[in-house]
Amino acid sequence: MISELEFKSLAREGYNRIPLMAEAFADLETPLSLYLKLANVQDGGKNSFLLESVVGGERFGRYSFIGLPARTLLRTSGFGAAVITEVVTDGQVVETSTINPLDFIAQYQQRFKVALRPGMPRFAGGLAGYFGYDAVRYIERKLENSCPPDDVGMPDILLLQTEEVAVIDNLSGRLYLLVYADPAQPEAYSRAKRRLRELRERLNTNVQAPAIGASESHEPVRHFAKADYLQAVERAKEMIAAGEFMQIQVGQRIERPFTQSPLSLYRALRSLNPSPYMYYYNFTGADAKPGEAGSDLFVVGASPEILVRQEATDAGQKITIRPLAGTRPRGATPELDKATEQELVADPKERAEHVMLIDLARNDIGRIAQMGSVEVTEAFAVERYSHVMHIVSNVEGTLKPGFGAMDVLKACFPAGTLSGAPKVHAMELIDQLEPVKRGLYGGACGYISYAGDMDVAIAIRTGVIKNQTLYVQAAAGVVADSVPEMEWRETEHKARALLRAAELVEEGFDS
């Protein structure tokens, strides 16, 4: 931990966020138990989160991140002349902006001069949360007025300013606790030091998982009747045949009551579907207006797919997109698994779709990358997860000087795998075909660190729980030779992991 003398020296240099850090051994803990001890303490852990990763569906990523309850959040709703971004601190709106929300977020980040600690992972404080799919309407103005009806009512962007964070090193078993102090506040150093001591003491407490018990299971309700979905796929195929599109992602939303603990849903999902991006966000009350309590709002996800990553390297800011398309179930034996892999990568339809997505990724990165730096560093690899395997490729580039995370997001958002090609035109048709606003689905979940690094996953295999209703969405990529019935089945299959996780909780999986 830095001394008070060092703290004051950094303050004189103009730093307005200075982290104090404590270390502890946590090799007998899990990220979930640490979340319960550190974050899920007061008000049920509102405005906190847990981020985990399982690499290739088979081994835990090196770091897990716990965002302790945030005092400040940024939220955006509305489009065009009605757009509004609010900065909320301790439940009070302290600032309002009507400029482009992504520009406001970029400007907001620049307010903080942070004394970064060497040796920390890419995220050790900053903004964490989501950008809903409909945030594309802040990028492509022609989509501003075509949004379908909103039946969920959640902010289009919601980010927590994380200034108390726990970083778990799953390799060494060490835990790093960071508290950011604002030297302009009285007794900032001593208060941060005292807070770290409190957090260390919490490590010695005993916790229990949220209580669950067997409860009534609920049948899901679909917003897209099957006949209407099949008709939408046929319409998409007609327009592809006419030469307007190469692919269109057509999705459906499913909802059902869910009265159990959202954290229990996360526990079930991470067991059923371990993924590179696993996240649990408690946004309870984050949408509250003055004098109101706000909604119970949670985001639970296990996404296999990166949207975009920006990270500092010796050669500059590296931008990465990793297109994922082409799916098969795992084989029952190693021999069947290998045979399935060979069939998948040889399938002409899967290869054609994947080539299109590689081209989309190259085009997106090319908009903000240095000339000649964009390259496909891996093509048609197969990644295996617990139940399925996917074709994946890796596209990288070096960011142009003077560009930041919001420029990268504007260039790459939303993912081509969730929209279609050509991208903007496909989104215009999606607005016509799908009966309700997508909301979070197809957007992005992740973080933008104080260091400027960004890592966001595509919000798929992701559930939203609002006021005890679970919303799940899934889409299928329609191409010229698509069979409508098969595309419907694909959406049902993709939604199944979350729905099964909900059933598992209701069956009392702990009992």
UniProtKB/TrEMBL annotation:
Its EC number is 4.1.3.27. It is an enzyme of class 4 (lyase). Coiled coil: none annotated. Residues 226-494 form the Chorismate-utilising enzyme C-terminal domain. It catalyses: chorismate + L-glutamine = anthranilate + pyruvate + L-glutamate + H(+). InterPro entries: ADC_synthase, Anth_synth_I-like, Anth_synth_I_N, Anth_synth_I_PabB, Chorismate_C. The keyword Mitochondrion does not apply. Keywords: Amino-acid biosynthesis, Aromatic amino acid biosynthesis, Lyase, Magnesium, Metal-binding, Tryptophan biosynthesis. The keyword Metal-binding applies. GO terms for biological process: L-tryptophan biosynthetic process. Pathway: Amino-acid biosynthesis; L-tryptophan biosynthesis; L-tryptophan from chorismate: step 1/5. GO terms for molecular function: anthranilate synthase activity; metal ion binding. Its cofactor is Mg(2+). Residues 27-177 form the Anthranilate synthase component I N-terminal domain. Belongs to the anthranilate synthase component I family. Part of a heterotetrameric complex that catalyzes the two-step biosynthesis of anthranilate, an intermediate in the biosynthesis of L-tryptophan. In the first step, the glutamine-binding beta subunit (TrpG) of anthranilate synthase (AS) provides the glutamine amidotransferase activity which generates ammonia as a substrate that, along with chorismate, is used in the second step, catalyzed by the large alpha subunit of AS (TrpE) to produce anthranilate. In the absence of TrpG, TrpE can synthesize anthranilate directly from chorismate and high concentrations of ammonia. Heterotetramer consisting of two non-identical subunits: a beta subunit (TrpG) and a large alpha subunit (TrpE). NCBIfam families: trpE_most (TIGR00564). This is Anthranilate synthase component 1. It comes from Lampropedia aestuarii.
